[in-house]
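Re: the 387-residue chain
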Amino acid sequence: MSIFNEKIDRLKTSSVKWELTKDIFGEADLWPMWVADMDFKPPQAVIDAIKSRVDHGIFGYTFVPPSTAGAITDWLQKRHQWEVSPTWLLYCSGVVQAISAAIQSFTAEGDRILLQAPVYTPFFDMIKKNNRIVVNSPLTLVNERYEIDFASFEQELQQGCKLFLLCSPHNPGGRVWGRDELLKIGELCLKYNCLILSDEIHSDIIFREFKHIPIASLSSKLSERVITLVAPSKTFNLAGLQASAVIIKNEDLRNQFQGTLTRQGIFSLNTFGIIGMEAAYREGEPWLEQLIDYLQGNKDNVLDYLHDHLPEITCVQSEGTYLLWLDCRKLNVSDAELHQLLIEKGKLALEPGTKYGPGGEGFVRMNIACPREDVMEGLDRLKKALG
């Protein structure tokens, strides 16, 4: 029996996923398959490392030790064949905070920042909240698989974008960008002097036939113009520990980013974030290998269920992440009606596609990182709502 079949009661743990459904969706009694965290315990090595630190009993000021940087760089070398120097690393409490800090570091108010919708909601939020201008080069859906419209991409770069936010792998679409696509992105951003901020938080959860390539690893010239964001939070279900790493090879850019963190009073990470991040990257790989196979099984179950019971709903081809992007446009209902049916009839909480910007209309995002029994419960509710 898989360790991931264990059902764990997350109520009364201040779980956003399980306890804020009423605040977010208006009703409390919903089956939550929305926000991107997992209903799985992290690797036992992570739990043991945190317990050991708790048993020590003193939690004074903590710095991030060199061993943590070593764990991260060793992981990147082993999993992604990317050689990173520990000196390139800075730390932030989360990827969203790092996105905001990068926007503040490398752009000015009123600057144009490029993204590719539909895409992770905080990309829009952080651009707008920092008084910059959102510029969208829409992704194109071809045979239920997202592709980049490079003519549109170059046209927007020609208008003077200072920063491009790359979601790699893509959330919510699950695309794992190929080498040729990433090289073309890099070539155009270099041509038009646009920095690349690559959010690679989902980069470890890749299905077997695909491979994640860090865009900064493709050439030395490109590596000088990329800021890469990684974290153990999605990979090992450690979001609550609030720890991420920012990888910047270019010393001037790194000093600019560090200056922003310093002005914001950010000097280190949470003690348990440090402990958990290092233990996960040092000892979590066997657990991750099992997770990927389990998620593949969950995905296969969803695809089979849709085929058999809800053929009007199709799933965008998912190559990575534990998020499925469901295309409901053939149902011919409005987004408001879709949302109402899911909430009131199905008692099911899914992320509405409209949250992800233009191109998200008619879609919903489903999180399948939960026990298989719970996935099937969600599918039955989906059928009740939309069948």
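The chain has a mean pLDDT of 97.
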